[in-house]
């Protein structure tokens, strides 16, 4: 019979869902109401300028997605099909951009391309997301059976035709899943567009920020947020379908193929992949060199200046105080996000497991051990018809459970796609209704950062929890262990390293979060990314040197965390 949702699972789900409802759904719904109540939707969306913004947002996101996919495919081949030395270092190099703060990437590309522009934005967003394509596609490519490719080659197909007619269609679920996620990240990119686009190039994300902070056009900002939320939900739905197809393909492929040395024309793909890896290092190297450049030559003036408040008091606190604020807020946000993300992952796995555990059981009287004549008689045919109806009902309930799990999973992922600027804006117009007016509280920044980090924790934890053999849980349960004891004795030891990985990545992401924090941090509680943004908006070479020095320190922290994660060889999960 179908397993009902256990009360413990329901209670566990209430904690992350309650947090999501208060600190995400409520602010976003409040923004929608503001847009409708004051007529901002029709007045704003009816202008040609807004649709030009939409067009540019979609165009730059689509361009960056194409660049990321083209650059990520050869890297995916390198990770999935080769056993060349140095792959560990390559994994670190391609993963670092994904977790770098957006202001760091924006300044890195400004150091390379001082004039900014459309191509700078496209390349910077693609730089962010090569790892998404490479790791997502490599996960499926590793499981492809080489015999199909070998058969095509034996029949006379060239390597290119074999790839386009055999390999590429098999990889389509992973490519589609990665492309949907990359497009979502690029469409909601904030720091990169703000730094590289300036006043000339704006997306929906930066326009929401401008209307809120500078123009005080709250109904207009709410209307744009409403448009963006609708687009994000649509893309997340497409991404969920693509991710389900990828997971189905992975289950059908079975065990991973062993890696080997490239042969023949495969070396050209390896060379292209290594070229991409080298190009990923160029912006970071440019940033480091720029941090050491002074009007008098090479020096550490920018790093020394971090102990002060910048040229003519550009900051209200020193750079070191901003760094301490970042560390404290990131620590609080990570602890909260890991707790919520682990709860959500356990809930999703439990719901999916109970759905798979649904069994068909015929009611008493519908089964019979009688011979063929009895089975072909009226009672036998009635029993068979009853079993068919029962089977159809069970399958229908299984489909409903699967859809339910997908809806819950998508709900947990929404903060990853919805603009952090939109969420920060929503906090400003709602949280004064809570006791103590959280808008002026220092805990608001960690809460906003935890909202961004929690989906990443879920994506790291889910694959590991799903891969735990259900027979281990059943064995522990048959020995009398309660569900909580089973979880503590079986799941926690096997998922422990992934939990540390989730915490490490969450900490780095929280450390560099800029979108919501730029709304919420007060001048005296500014984090390091917010201080960097203020420094580059003020005149003075010393401010620029301080900004590049601060970004270099963030890069060093990011590289160290990614290197440690790669060293312990823990998968970084789904994207």
Helix-strand layout with pairing:
Layout: H1 7-37, H2 40-45, H3 48-81, H4 87-99, H5 102-112, H6 118-141, H7 146-154, H8 159-187, H9 191-197, H10 204-213, H11 218-253, H12 266-291, E1 293-294, E2 297-298, H13 301-305, H14 319-356, H15 372-376, H16 378-417, H17 420-430, H18 444-467, H19 470-478, H20 483-512, H21 515-520, H22 528-536, H23 541-567
Helix pairs in contact: 1-11, 1-14, 1-17, 3-6, 3-8, 3-12, 4-6, 4-23, 5-6, 5-9, 5-12, 5-23, 6-8, 6-9, 7-8, 8-11, 10-11, 11-16, 12-23, 14-16, 14-18, 14-20, 14-22, 16-18, 18-20, 19-20, 20-23, 22-23
CATH class of the largest domain: Mainly Alpha
Shape: globular
Q: What can be said about the biggest beta sheet?
A: 2 strands, antiparallel
Main structural class: mainly alpha
Count of distinct structural domains: 2
CATH superfamily of the largest domain: MetI-like
Family: Belongs to the binding-protein-dependent transport system permease family.
Domain ABC transmembrane type-1: 54-237, 323-565
Subcellular location: Cell inner membrane; Cell membrane
Protein name: Thiamine transport system permease protein
């Amino acid at each position: 019979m179908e397993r009902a949702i256990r009360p413990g699972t329901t209670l566990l789900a209430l904690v992350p869902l309650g947090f999501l409802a208060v600190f995400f759904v409520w602010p976003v719904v409040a923004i929608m109401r503001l847009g409708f109540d004051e007529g901002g939707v029709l007045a704003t969306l009816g202008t040609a300028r807004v649709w030009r913004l939409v067009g540019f947002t979609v165009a730059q996101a689509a361009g960056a997605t194409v660049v990321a996919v083209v650059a990520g495919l050869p890297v995916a081949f390198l990770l999935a099909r080769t056993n060349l030395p140095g792959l560990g270092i390559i994994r670190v190099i391609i993963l670092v951009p994904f977790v770098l703060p957006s202001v760091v990437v924006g300044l890195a590309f400004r150091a390379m391309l001082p004039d900014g522009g459309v191509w700078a934005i496209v390349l910077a967003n693609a730089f962010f997301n090569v790892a998404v394509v490479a790791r997502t596609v490599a996960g499926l490519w590793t499981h492809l059976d080489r015999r199909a490719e070998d058969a095509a080659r034996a029949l006379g197909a060239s390597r290119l035709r074999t790839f386009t007619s055999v390999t590429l269609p098999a990889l389509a679920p992973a490519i589609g899943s990665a492309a949907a996620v990359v497009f979502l990240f690029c469409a909601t990119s904030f720091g990169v567009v703000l730094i590289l686009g300036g006043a000339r190039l704006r997306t929906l994300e930066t326009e929401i920020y401008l209307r809120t902070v500078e123009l005080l056009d709250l109904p207009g900002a709410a209307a744009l947020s409403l448009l963006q939320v609708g687009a994000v939900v649509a893309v997340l739905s497409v991404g969920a379908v693509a991710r389900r197809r990828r997971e189905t393909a992975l289950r059908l492929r079975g065990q991973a193929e062993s890696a080997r040395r490239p042969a023949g024309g495969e070396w050209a793909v390896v060379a292209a992949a290594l070229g991409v890896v080298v190009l990923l290092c160029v912006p970071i190297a440019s940033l480091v060199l720029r941090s050491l450049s002074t009007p008098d030559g090479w020096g550490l003036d920018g790093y020394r200046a971090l102990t002060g408040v910048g040229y003519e008091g550009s900051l209200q606190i020193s750079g070191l105080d901003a760094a301490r604020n970042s560390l404290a807020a990131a620590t609080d946000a990570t602890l909260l996000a890991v707790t919520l993300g682990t709860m959500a992952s356990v809930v999703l796995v439990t719901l999916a497991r109970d759905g798979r555990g649904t069994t068909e059981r015929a009611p008493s009287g519908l089964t019979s051990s009688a011979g063929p004549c009895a089975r072909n008689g009226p009672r036998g045919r009635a029993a068979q018809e009853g079993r068919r109806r029962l089977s159809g009902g069970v399958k229908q309930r299984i489909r409903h459970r699967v859809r339910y799990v997908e809806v819950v999973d998508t709900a947990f992922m929404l903060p990853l796609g919805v603009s952090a600027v939109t969420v920060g804006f929503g906090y400003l117009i709602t949280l004064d209704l809570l006791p103590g007016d959280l808008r002026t509280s220092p805990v608001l920044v960690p809460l906003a950062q935890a909202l961004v980090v929690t989906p990443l924790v879920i994506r790291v934890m889910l694959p590991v929890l799903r891969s735990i053999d259900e027979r281990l849980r059943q064995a522990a349960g048959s020995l009398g262990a309660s569900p909580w004891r089973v979880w503590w004795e079986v799941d926690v030891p096997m998922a422990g390293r992934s939990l540390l990985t989730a915490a490490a990545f969450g900490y780095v992401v929280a450390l560099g979060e800029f979108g919501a924090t730029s709304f919420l941090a007060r001048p005296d509680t500014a984090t390091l990314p917010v201080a960097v943004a203020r420094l580059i908006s003020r005149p003075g070479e010393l401010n620029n040197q301080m900004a590049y020095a601060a970004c270099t320190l963030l890069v060093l922290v990011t590289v160290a965390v990614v290197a440690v994660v790669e060293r312990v060889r823990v998968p970084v999960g789904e994207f």
